[in-house]
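Colleagues,

Please find the record for the two-part complex below.
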Amino acid sequence: MSVRLKVIEAIKQIAKEQHVTLPELSDDLSLHETGFDSLAFAILVARLEDETGVDPFTISEDAAFPATVGDFVRAYENVPA
Amino acid sequence: MSPREIFALRDHLGAELKGRTLSDAHNSASLTDILSQTVLGGRLRELSSRAVLLKLSDQLRSGLAMIELDGIARRMLLCPPDLNPAHLDALIADAGIDAVVTDEPARWTGSGVALIVTAELPLAPATPAQTERATEWLMLTSGTSGVPKIAGHTLEALTGAIVAEGPARGPAPVWATFYDIRRYGGLQIFLRAILSGGSMVLSDPHEALADHVARLNARAVSHISGTPSHWRKLLMSGSAAQFAPRYVRLSGEIADQAVLDGLKTAFPNASVGHAYASTEAGVGFAVNDGLEGFPADYLGNRNGVEMKVVDGSLRIRSTRTAHAYIGRNATALTDDDGFVDSGDMVELRGDRYYFVGRRGGIINIGGLKVHPEEIEAVINRHPDVRMSRAKSRRSPITGGIVVADVILADGTDPARAKEIRDQILNQCRAHLASHKVPAVIRFVEALDVTPAGKLARTDA
């Protein structure tokens, strides 16, 4: 499964668990508009760390938290394997 | 007026009850004629009025030495097997130790302890000794780091609950415990065995659980205690099927409904109950209605044990508590009114109090306080779950999140893992605030249990 697909799957799974109705996920959708609160994002980052072995937001000191879904996905894609 | 009569362990042992034994995986000692035998090489006289460190590598010799020393030594400090050797010097100084009973005498030459007595088996014949004094029993608290505290007890305080309960009904019980008898929970069972006229089967940390259960069966153990973690391990092992005790007790950790129900199912003919006790607070109470928590009307004064809840934690005052912490920098064991703060946090729901966790075990989730035990109790309700541990994990977003490690029941189809995970999460969402719902559930094969029988909480 591609990194992108893994990230999208995880977002959908957590939305289901948290009873969040997601808008259609596109790269330029702002993360704010996903309806996720900080807890949901914390869960997402923790699960993706378990699945991919990386937490791109802790690795780098200066990493700004992404603004859009596309930025979020790229944060995982750009981590060296 | 004659001085108040002092009872020591030897005064509860007589030759009139035949066939009583104290045994471990390798040896068995007869309790029936124990008073005319010695594990101390006949050197008991030298230990009269001494402050004795009991530092032995096995429970059998420890128990036999306790019987011999009680009423003779001024005080005895019981060392549990997991005591960090680096803490020995501080403990020896704090307790004013001037004699050691050991099975490794070579280690103590040049140690500065004046008198070294070797405990050895087989027992040798000896002239029965007479009780001289009320020996002070020193026990170590089971904290996870730093030098443990020394709590001072008397035999009278240690046996208060046993005497209050009266003798066990029916045939003389055969006692056992998963605890080490040099810990409060284990010592309670050892003392019950001595006072109740029965026998006792000791645990052995090096023995496989199935072998231990086989030994419990071979010795016809009827009464047995352990922590919920001990019992969950037994339920998971599949060994419980061959075992049929009459009396099953849990203490030392929160007994949640899942483990109580699990034991009732595994041992349908047994009385299953949980007890509240700690090294400092002594035996508080027993709960025998099969339910977790305890009735709210236990608060107040009940059978000489007074309990109240202040700032969410259970406070106990009774003659069964330890009388003081011992040592150079010892803090007060009780408040000004004589109550011990147990540090165990309780919550009133309806007409019952429920234990929610340790005050010191709170984890911080995004600034909110969470007791991991509360989460585990909900996870453990799932029929496929045997045991779980909740803990915090650092999160770049909220500072911390809850994650849970879960052991599934034997023979659970791995293909159902995802379905079970979803069910556990639904269960958690239905019963817990959202920040307490685990973000991640990991299925694991095993969870660490400390030598004191409690779930290891490295992050607590």
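The domain at 3-77 of chain A is CATH 1.10.1200.10 (Non-ribosomal Peptide Synthetase Peptidyl Carrier Protein; Chain A).

Comments are welcome before we finalize the supplementary table.
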